[in-house]
Amino acid sequence: MLNIERYEIFLDFNGYNYDGIEKITLTSTEEKLELDSVNLQIESVKADGKDVQFKVEGEKLIVYSSVKRELEIRFKGKASENSILGIYVAPYNGKGMITTQFEAIYARRFIPCFDHPALKARFRLSVRVDRGLRVISNMPVESVEDSGGGKVVYHFQETPRMSTYLLYLGIGEFEEIVDESKRPTIIVATTPGKVQRGRFSMDVARKVIDFYEKYYEIPYQLPKVHLIQVPDFAAGAMENWGAITFRETALLADDSSSVYQRFRVAEVVAHELAHQWFGNLVTLKWWDDLWLNESFATFMSYKSLKSIFPQWDSEGHLIYSETLSALEDDSLSTTHPIEAHVKDPHEIEQMFDNISYGKGASILRMIEAYVGEENFRRGVVDYLNSFKFGNAEGKDLWNSISKVTGKDIGLIMSDWITKPGYPVVFVSVNDGIIRLYQKRFTLLNYNLSEIYKIPLTYEVNGRFNTFLLDKESAEIDFREEKINSIKVNVSRTGFYRVFYDPLELVFSSKLNTYEELGLVNDYWNFLLADMVDVKTYFGVVNRFINTSNSFTSREIASQLLTLYYVTRKQYGKDFLSNQMRVFKKARDDLGRLAYSSIVKTLAILDEDFALGLSVLFDYYDSVDSNIKEAVAISYAITTNDFNTLFEKYSRYNIDEEKNRMLSAIVSIRDKSVVDKVFSMVFNRTIKAQDVRFTISSLIHNPYVREEACGYLQDNFAKVKDFVTTVYGGPWGLGSIVRGMIMCGVDKPDEIVDFLEKIKYKEIERPVRESIEWIKIYSRLKQKFSQL
């Protein structure tokens, strides 16, 4: 039996090294106790005041004793300067911030602990540092005492019961702004010189917390919440309870920022704050239910923004950013069920994907539409109250919603979370009979048999109906009236695609914003899956040549850009030119987003357009922020001026601007840029957090792709060692492998052979995904070569 109550931790820092004394209040009747410990030097262990035997074996600290009350461990650790996981140093301006990132299994790199989400405990932390440094943790500072020798000790209040992966420690020269207008106190902390750009996120946080407190009917539990900018950060953000960490571009924005940047900041802040209840207050029992943490936070972030910023149409953003990307990934044979069975903790990293986030959020939206918004909310409130400060499983949430609605939600949810993939519903109309037929949708037509319980929504002649399609086929009789129009998957609440026969019937319907978006995405994927020909696809695209729907416009622009990367041919310039005219004078945020996307796409596709746009680079700092990236890319395309772009990249102190310069650098069409970019990667000129984006973007550039892919193949062992070290694990390498899909567009056999020789178990799925996409794009390229 193991019962853990509290960790009392004292850390004495000398530079990046620290000495630790840890007292864990626990009861264990076993004569052998195993804790998690990695890269820590264990000096002594006492059980109930007596020295006991111990050994370190692999990632375990094994203590040979039962414990009645207290386990004391003395140890030494160091903040890593090579990795961005565990406790590490995030460099900036020649200095370093000590920070932590523990999800999923990296608290063991900080302290010896029971690094399991179900083994919750309270934490009381004291940290000794050089005077002048500031320290942040989950709870407010209780006291600061002078300890002599030019040092002070920060003592923090004790946390509520929580999992080890939510613990946080930050040490550095923080600047802060504080909102104490009401409980909780909201604090934005940044490296020097940046904190004023945090006022937008502070305002968002206050409004989001107010929204969640009303929605969940449970107050935020801690006295304060820190929003902390970290100079180099593996993820976008991390929901440490009361001390949320963000990469800079996910936290900082001001009036000079683009619409995209402000929306991204608001969405990420809302996502991490949703976790303060769903994930922190109630925590998964094991990582099998990771998806529930992430999908619910994703779902709630868009819901809160819908209330706070209605002008952004956040529900449309959820479909555009989450649902469509999840549908794409779930179209592969390499996909996995939402609920994954994690045996080895090192498998967890592969679960942080579009299935866990986007598909999960989309399924929650589908269930909410099925049971009703208020019934869904009441079920969530019941769930949180039943399991607060404890651990739960996915089925516990379905039970709570079922209890409120009187419907067996678990039966439907089980179908969607335990089965991989999703269906395409074929809709045909003949003599007043609507025939529905479902089949699992795969891009390579693997003929995988799966029947889903589909809560179908449809409109016939403008009248709304629902239908549970729980078998392969069904018919709906409308012979008493002429069917003039039909659409299925109303407002795209369902996680499935729709294939119409005849297609004209859907265009006779009045399509709303989300239905237009879904239709163009469906028929792009039907093109990829070889279910429609090129003429049919462009027939759908041309229906929307004058659309004022920002989401549809951006989706088609993205499709046309992919066609360019795959075929090296410029398709759809008439569409893009017309859309630029539609959105050029847009004053609303969605219109600006569309205009930004169209201009960037045109700059890449049309060198004459890029030449005209590049003249604005001379006035870059005064250019509209929404087209700055397009201007920088245009300059890169037409001048190949690496030195100027690199100088600007090095000079800018704001990541939003640095990333624009990075996008421009990897757009240079001179082959010499390949060696220069990889030199920037290996000498750490580029932040570790940006390595994956940089290499993938370079490979997409068709003018230097052969050289970039050749470099990767010739230096794969070096890249592998660098990326796995920097990211502290294999998941970063998986992203690099996915980027090599574009290498296979030009040399499919060679790249598939190369990928098949990578024998690295931890990235087996990314390798198989890449091989599958190479086959998909090769077929698409062949299809267009015949035009």
Strand content: 15-25%
The biggest beta sheet reads: 8 strands, mixed
**CATH superfamily of the largest domain, called what?**
tricorn interacting facor f3 domain
Overall pLDDT metric: 91
What coarse outline follows from CA principal-axis ratios? globular
User: What is the CATH C level class of the largest domain, in words?
Assistant: Mainly Beta
Number of domains: 6
**Count of β-strands:** 29
Q: Give the strand line-up of the largest sheet.
A: 5-4-8-2-1-11-14-13
Architecture of the largest domain in CATH?
Answer: Sandwich
Rg of Cα set: 27 Å
**Count of DSSP helices?**
26
**Percentage of residues in helical conformation:** 40-55%
Family: Belongs to the peptidase M1 family.
Pfam family, one: Peptidase_M1_N
EC number: 3.4.11.-
Cofactor: Zn(2+)
Explain how this protein is built.
This protein is 42% helix and 22% strand. The chain has 787 residues and is α+β, with helices and mostly antiparallel strands. It has six domains: 1-166, Immunoglobulin-like, CATH 2.60.40.1730; 282-418, Neutral Protease Domain 2 (Neutral Protease, domain 2), CATH 1.10.390.10; 423-510, Immunoglobulin-like, CATH 2.60.40; 516-600, no CATH class; 606-669, no CATH class; 671-787. Strands 5-4-8-2-1-11-14-13 form an eight-stranded mixed beta sheet, with no helix packed on it.
